[in-house]
């Protein structure tokens, strides 16, 4: 620690000299002079920001009043807020315009990486903070100490070796904090703060906006019984997952709680309930450094992003340092960390996730100035994801832990927020017994089918044939899982892993939100269960549409299989969505229960195909894998690597866009389950009641 403090003092002193320092670099070229002036402005501004971060680090935030905390929060985030983003060096367009094509994107990344230090100073990660500040000082020296402009290559090299050298610190810490309950930064805020005083929101260091403030105030206004009931539904869903999957929960000691800032009152009750079950909370922030982040995904506890365009602009900044050697280095650190803390990994019970929804639609702007992975890097990224998942599964086998997911709206959803919140609570607690019997009627029919034929209506062009597994013993086996309110809340679907061979056709949906991004008129063609072609209408340029899908839906894979086919039965949620006109603001967690959906990627049983799963009627669900996942058993290592894709994205067709869903038997007979958006199969009549006379 003494070494870290010495480095800190040296870095702070050096940063303090930057604003008044004269540069050796000079250039008579007029354009170069303009860039030189902007470079000085950039380094002055960013060094001042780092020094401000150090000031914040030294402050005991709990002793400050709410106005001071709010001002600090504004100072930390105002530069990248939408209203200021056009003139922020965090914006690669602006950085390139001011600093030139050679330096714009790389120095915009450097600023973005320094902004990751906000989390470091709040969580007392001094080593990571100072290491990042030292990278900035090193790159600053290339400009201030040299007689000529440095080549971009040398800046990239500095970034590469920083990431490579500090992987054993940053990647190790990230890996450990996902399984180790001794990291209690967030837990302490939840359990030790006066939650009636919303100043606690500012103790995280995340951007605090209206969603966080209004959510906290709203939950504070609810009765203790109601908040406890919400927490109970969430916790019991997690516990039921172990029962349904017949996994022994007794050896487990930790549960990963993921939530949005503002939900602490519910989370506190949940922590207490989990502790009564013998599970201690593991709570970690989403990764802030690009070394640990995957595109725009935020896994961990989160707040509403200060600026989604900023996140999108920097989603592929790892293009500056990703190569095979670096990927291998990360994998080595991950494996070494799991091995060192394998006892903690062994008692991990899984993630319990509270999602939020209701944000205004975000349509990203595509910027040529943003960093992008090249084709080779895309391949490395896919390879790394596969290897990383293999390591994780070795120490925390997926068939040995469970999960649960539940979702609630945020105030941004509109003026009916409180009404919608109450409706979602009702949706999350629908009658399990009622739906169990209705969904069993659908499963009984589908168990007789050779395939399912799904047709769109109106302008929806969906026309797809989904092949089903064959049953060897219908008295003991079934093809579809009867999904109730356990791991996946709310209830309301029957799902299967289709046979890929012979699964052909078009999947089309007018609008859908996937990974918080809107896809307009998404159209995917499947051949033998795998994506053959794809397009959407998000952009005028067809190439941009295809790139958008490949990056954000296919995660840079050349193709993906259909990992899941399901029929959603939660018409109550569907009618509620139309009542408040929020259908396209709902999360996929709820939307997937409101029509047929197709998941591209791995099956729902990935890495646990060999574990028997049973429905409430006692029948074993035999449709747990497909022609891809079976490759895990291959002796050919090249084929074995093609078993998993490490993604699973649900795409739902809403009821009003469904013309028909037919269960097709071997003799060619067709039994309709849904016609013109309504259930027609005997035993499903109750599902049409929420529609009324419509």
Report on this structure.
By secondary structure, the chain is an alpha+beta fold. The protein folds into 3 domains: 2-165, no CATH class; 177-202 and 209-305 and 333-368 and 396-404, no CATH class; 450-687, no CATH class. It has 23 helices and 19 strands. The protein has an 8-stranded antiparallel beta sheet with strand order 12-11-10-6-5-17-18-19, covered by helices on one side. Strands 8-9-13-14-16 form a 5-stranded antiparallel beta sheet, covered by helices on one side. Helix 13 (264-276) links the parallel strand 1 (254-258) and strand 2 (280-282). 46% of the residues are buried. The mean pLDDT is 94.
Describe what is shown at a glance.
With 694 residues, the protein is an alpha+beta fold. Helix content is 41%, strand content 16%.
